[in-house]
Amino acid sequence: MSRSTTPTSSFVKLPPIITNEMDREFLQEINTYIDHEMAKIDPEDDEQRYIIYKTVFSKIISYVQAYKKLLTQVKREYEDTIEAIKKGQREAVFLHGKLKAMASEPSTIRNYKKRGDELEERIAIITKDNDKLEKQLKELRDKRREREALTREVTEAPKREFKKDSRLIPGLSIEEATDLNLLYKNLDQLDRQLKDLNISFKTRYLPKSHKMDLKTKLDDKVAYRDKLLRYGQIYRAKRYRLKIALEAAQAYNRVKPPHQTVGDAVFYAISQAIGSQSQEKETNQEQSGGDGQPREGSPTSGQPATTSTFEDDDPNKEKEAEMMLEYIEKFNELFEDGKYEDAAIHAANSPKGILRTSATLAKFKDVKGRFSGRSPLLAFCDAVMASVSAVNNKPNDQLSVECVECALNENRLDLLSYWISQERLTLNEEVGDLISNHCHCKVPCKCSCQALAQNVYTKIKLHHQALICLLRQGRVHAGIEYARNRAPLSKDQFVEVLRTCPSLPLLHTLVEEDEQGNRALPVGTIIMVLMENNQLDLVLPFMQELQNKPSFDDESTSMFQSAVLDDTETTMEQWHSIVKLLQDHGYEETSMKLLSSITVLTAMKTALFNSLVPDSPVNETQTTNIEESAQPVQG
């Protein structure tokens, strides 16, 4: 088949700047970036505008590979010119300052001389004042020395002399006063009397102010008693409300109506109880005759008769129920006031997770409207995830799925990535499917959804889905290595992967040999799967590229021929259909090489069979098949 030759120019023809839709999207992103950055700066500031366009020029250079060398030289020339201009401006400013300094040098010297004369005058004045002060100080020191000399002449004070008391002890005679044993006995008696007097002084006699202190203490005790009585009434009423709340919560747990939280049930029951209690109080007042005192046989006003049975309950349970009721009331108050952020944090930190439920999440989901920040639903999900480490309890499967769905709807992949990395979610296959299906990017994925889904599938050991996520990220070699080393896949699983996300890099990776010389899929199986899916745009380039690659074992043999010879699963009918496909699309050379490879493969099988069974009658039939396979396939 002859081919016409065309004269070629001495210049290398460069490809056009815009060749596909990706280039147009890149130009649109560049224009959007310029408009966005120019809106942030002052349009009159040349330096900032230069920085923006310099950044854009660098992005264009890195994107356009064909014009990279030319654009780099243009950029370098522009930067050198601008740098020379800036350098000239800096030198001009420096020389201007230096010129001004030289022009003002005579006046500066004159001012320095004038200042020196003024300082010399001041030094003379200071020296004169110092001499005067030094003279006055010397006079004061002389006077002080004279005073000290006069004080030393004062005589010393006379020593005190103790006089001996020669009087007799009252009540004792001379003999008794000289009896040592009697004196010790009287001394002990006097000591006891002294101790008794001290004790009597401290206990029997007190100052008059002590009476006033006792009266003040009595008044305080009475006030404290009245306060305790009021608290007792409040606690009795609260105990009654806790009983109603406990019964309502137990009834809710038995029924669990949809779209209603335990807080709603408790709040409704308490409202009904307070209404009935007020009606009972009015009835008691009518029965007492309007004087406020209950009649004999009537129930006490403001206190139900059933509270006596609740007093026998465990006090710890009462305290726990009281805490839960306060949490529910506080949550309802915050939610009704529109403080959704505070309500979300309050619900996430509820005791025993009574508000960390899907019903509470549905309540936040029902809130409609526009919000300046994040939505109330996302605030609740974030609060639940933030409190996982504090309560040491992950949300259940359903709540985890709903939180993931909320983050995806809000397009908060950063928040979702943080939850997964910090192990705040209960991971399952549904979570991975939600994240993976949220991605609408072409291969490779640019929104990081596939990377998150791969992380989820790997943690729950769904290696097949993890491999698909790797392929959708464009990490074909990493995916195949993952499948071979960490999670070996069967042939059917590889075929399913090929059907799910086919691409030329995946086809080449599947047909490559590993360290043991094995291929993930035979080349015939790969081609037949693509033909079944009508993906001829992948089949023909794949076979052509394999034909142009030399084999690792023998450089004179192409990779395609080597793969065909190693394929023992594809039948001759399937090979002939592939040859016919190549001929129909004008790949005559590739079809002939494939046909020769098939012929060699058939001959090798026949020779192997003859060596094992030399007298078999099948040899003639196989030889005929070889001759038929060597004939060109007609369209």
Commentary on this structure:
The chain has helices spanning 21-38, 46-63, 68-103, 105-151, 174-177, 180-203, 209-255, 262-287, 307-310, 315-336, 340-348, 358-365, 376-386, 388-391, 397-409, 413-421, 429-438, 449-459, 463-472, 476-485, 491-500, 504-511, 523-532, 536-548, 559-566, 572-584, 588-612, 618-630. By secondary structure, it is mainly alpha-helical. Among the domains are: 21-103; 212-283 and 312-322, no CATH class; 522-635, no CATH class. The longest helix is centred in the first third of the chain and has 47 residues, at 105-151. The chain is extended. Residues 1-10, 290-313 and 615-635 have low confidence and may be disordered.
Shape: extended
Helix-strand makeup class: mainly alpha
The overall strand count is 0
* Radius of gyration from the alpha-carbon trace, in angstroms: 51 Å
**Termini gap:** 19 Å
In the predicted model, the low-confidence regions spanning at least 5 consecutive residues are 1-10, 290-313, 615-635
Largest sheet: none
Q: What is the typical, i.e. mean, pLDDT?
A: 76
Number of helices: 28
Q: Into which percent range does the helicity of residues fall?
A: 55-70%
**Approximate strand percentage:** under 5%
Element order, helices and strands? HHHHHHHHHHHHHHHHHHHHHHHHHHHH
Protein topology:
Layout: H1 21-38, H2 46-63, H3 68-103, H4 105-151, H5 174-177, H6 180-203, H7 209-255, H8 262-287, H9 307-310, H10 315-336, H11 340-348, H12 358-365, H13 376-386, H14 388-391, H15 397-409, H16 413-421, H17 429-438, H18 449-459, H19 463-472, H20 476-485, H21 491-500, H22 504-511, H23 523-532, H24 536-548, H25 559-566, H26 572-584, H27 588-612, H28 618-630
Protein name: Translin-associated factor X-interacting protein 1 N-terminal domain-containing protein
Region (Disordered): 276-316, 615-635
Domain Translin-associated factor X-interacting protein 1 N-terminal: 32-141
